[in-house]
Specification:
Length: 381
């Protein structure tokens, strides 16, 4: 079969590495498989690396999972078809300690974690980065939909992180913790493509994964039931507790704080109220879920922890407070992000990621919020 033409956007990323060794992070999905095929077609000496991250029965066999079971076999099949070297590295212990345990502990503290960020920050962009260098690779290629563009001031050796050309697939929100050193080594050949183009390329290359479903939800959570994973590791978190209003009055009972996140409406099961109630806070120490009206969800500012800067962030910013949230104008004051207009459903533990234009310039974990009503009271004091 004749190899398909390499799209210009991907060629711009890969051509500088023609004849040179590159490592490809191969999860067994369509995106990373196409990256491997494109790198091989571009004349790179591609080496595939697959991390075995977990083996949890149903999760490992579920369509749309990654880095376990059938997905490892798919990655190996793609590598064999392309005729490239392929390594499988057991990282289960590291993944459990860095990602799964952190995930569970966050819920125990009343936070809503983003495990994909922790995985990228530790296992994929730290450990995999080191593995790629040990193999003599001059770059690490991944299937993320994000663009690494040359730094205007420092040239191609120093990259800037930009949103993907396909806004429906952009994954930059999950990469806010990437360091500059990692970004200088990483390349993202799919960042300038639409997902439909990637699927077409997989078909044209004759890859076994061409029609494979995309990864859904959290990869290590079978059926999306994250509460079951949390309870298996920390069974004491399934202890019942109290749902209270903002004045501390008892409204009902719950079966564990880990089942709730700020902004949630379903699952409270509280009737007879004058207006709909939402989760507006979680008191982990007391084991209470705090419920209130939607207006109590309005947030004027958030405090960030683990702030990571990848560009200038002192001027006007556009910020995402959830991966699917619309961009909102804000400005940074120390470790606080101040929003121009109140934001709703802001959950501590999630990330706030800021952009200037399409460039990701900073991000951090939201650990404290300041309500819009409180902000107004402070400004009027």
């Amino acid at each position: 079969m004749t190899a398909p033409a390499i799209p210009a956007a991907a060629a711009a990323v890969l051509t500088p590495f023609k004849g040179r060794r590159v490592a490809v992070a191969m999860s067994g999905g369509v995106d990373s498989s196409v990256v491997a095929a494109l790198a091989h077609a571009a004349g790179c000496e591609a080496v595939g690396i697959t991390l075995q991250l977990y083996d949890q029965g149903a999760a490992a066999r579920r369509p749309g999972a990654c880095c376990a079971g059938a997905d490892i076999r798919d990655a190996r099949s793609v590598a064999e078809r392309l005729g490239i070297a392929h390594y499988v590295v057991d990282m289960e212990s590291r993944f459990r300690e860095s990602v799964i345990d952190n995930f569970v502990d966050s819920y125990a503290r009343g936070l809503t974690p983003v495990p994909c960020v922790e995985c990228n920050k530790t296992v994929k962009f730290t450990d995999l980065h080191a593995l790629a260098r040990d193999l003599g690779a001059e770059a690490l290629l991944t299937g993320h939909y994000v663009q690494r563009l040359p730094c205007a001031e420092r040239g191609d050796a120093h990259g800037e992180l930009h949103r993907a050309a396909d806004p429906t697939k952009d994954q930059s929100y999950f990469l806010w913790a990437t360091t500059q050193a990692q970004l200088d080594y990483l390349r993202f050949p799919l960042g300038g493509l639409a997902k439909t183009e990637t699927r077409a390329l997989a078909q044209a290359f004759g890859l076994v994964v061409a029609a494979k479903p995309d990864s859904q939800d959290i990869c290590f959570v079978p059926g999306g039931d994250y509460a079951a994973v949390v309870e298996r590791i920390r069974p004491e978190l399934a202890s019942p507790g109290t749902i209270v209003d903002e004045q501390g009055r008892v409204l009902g009972r719950h079966n564990g704080i880990h089942r709730f996140t700020v902004g949630q409406r379903r699952g409270l099961d509280i009737g007879g109220q004058a207006e709909p109630l939402y989760v507006v806070g979680i008191d982990a120490a007391a084991g209470n879920v705090i419920a209130g009206p939607r207006r109590s969800l309005a947030v004027a500012a958030v405090r960030l922890e683990g702030l990571n800067r990848l560009g200038p962030g002192d001027g006007p910013l556009m910020v995402k407070v959830r991966s699917m949230a619309p961009l909102a104008p804000a400005r940074l004051d120390g470790d606080w992000l101040l929003f121009d207009t109140p934001q709703y459903g802001v959950a501590p533990g999630q990330a706030a990621v800021a952009y200037v234009g399409d460039r990701l310039v900073l991000g951090g974990t939201m650990v404290e919020t300041r309500r819009a009503t409180a902000e107004a009271e402070l400004s009027n004091a």
